[in-house]
């Protein structure tokens, strides 16, 4: 067989794509196999035009590049459950500062994807006498046939989807993984590359259908009356803090004793979730400050920092608040310096403004960070809004042995031990912070919020953390992976309560404004203090509503998925979730339009 080397290349390529689905636990149906096979033909059939010796080296190089991209996608998927995108280029500078956490995604078994180079070389050498160069006319015929067959098989389903007006194709797709299942591995990356190139061009503006999703006008918030009394507002974002650690005991020792006690004098929200995506910590900040969703690829902070978001800091400024942000790391990390300035912070205290000793992990330890931050805000004119971003419990959870207080020898996973040690330490830091605020007279009459930014990344089924939480079904794993704590101390209050309302980080800003009696600007979130039943939406189109959790089937068009009861943790009739599926998708589309098109500014200009 003259083109046996090419046949071997095709077989190895498809095996690798199948292994990719195994490694990532994603679907790989027969139709998906055909789609991927067609795209490989389209991309590689041109090599049949080459002479045999040249073709072998080209195919070898293609296999290497293919393996490199697959392994990169696997590493990315392990953390984000999503695929790489060219839009992430803007986030590359952030990777150098979190290298330790990135290394936790790498496994020795990943090297299996590069053994194909050895297999291909060996096979080509063994069959070298059975491969050769076709006559020029035959080469053109074979290459053309392969390309044409692949193109037809690949494009026919796309044409049908377009004719059916499927939303993933004709509208703004809300999930990269839905595009992956509809386009295949190479189709997804090809389409992503084209969209990345198109994004460099100026926007053509909003279509009529897109404008219909947005409000016609924005309220005249500048003319709103100022309440007579405005409390100070202190918001503290806790790194990688899951709600599963609240109330948890290990060997009879409370993991978070101070936060456990804090439930006695604050409002605690047990049904509160993080809605972050690929931007993780920066996504949590963005959700909290703007009440909009994160984008589906990368971070708003690095891609759209100059947009008009009219967020919480700028809105509080209108009512006379002094607004400050505090984070003991590099000013430019996640492009915070530009974003904070644009969204309305008067001052940003960063690494250069804090002590340079006492580092744990990436930055100054949280005890000193909170203490020094309180020193800064104590000198501010009131009312003030202080936004503090903690960092000690950041992956890879490196913690000094001499500071360890928990007995965790029963855990084999070093990451889990490190996580629990840092969580316990941060809890101590919060206890000291609360005491400091009380001593300075800043606790009693301030509105104070503590919340977690995202999960630990250690919540997969079968892990030690999942076992600690007895999480072995879809609902339990959802709660473990998305649940983060939210504590709100209202001005003048000294007693605690449990608020069972369902909500997410997108609701924090509206809740704060509601509590200080200020009407919000345009925000997608809702106050958690009202009687409304909110739809808490996640970036993949899943959502929590009332006593139900909806998990979409990303291999099918929007509207295909499974509805679960959060009470029984069992699958229930789809009708219980049906009415909110499109509402959830539309909320993501609206948020994307506002961000990608800077739509709030355009609405004001109309």
Automatic annotation (TrEMBL):
UniProt keyword Lipid metabolism, yes or no: no
Keywords annotated in UniProt: Cell membrane, Manganese, Membrane, Metal-binding, Transmembrane, Transmembrane helix
Family assignment from sequence similarity: Belongs to the LTA synthase family.
GO MF terms, alphabetically ordered: metal ion binding
Pathway(s) it belongs to: Cell wall biogenesis; lipoteichoic acid biosynthesis
Record's protein name: LTA synthase family protein
Active-site residue numbers: 281
InterPro entries for the chain: Alkaline_phosphatase_core_sf, LtaS-like, OpgB/LTA_synthase_biosynth, Sulfatase_N
Pfam family, one: Sulfatase
Residues binding substrate: 394
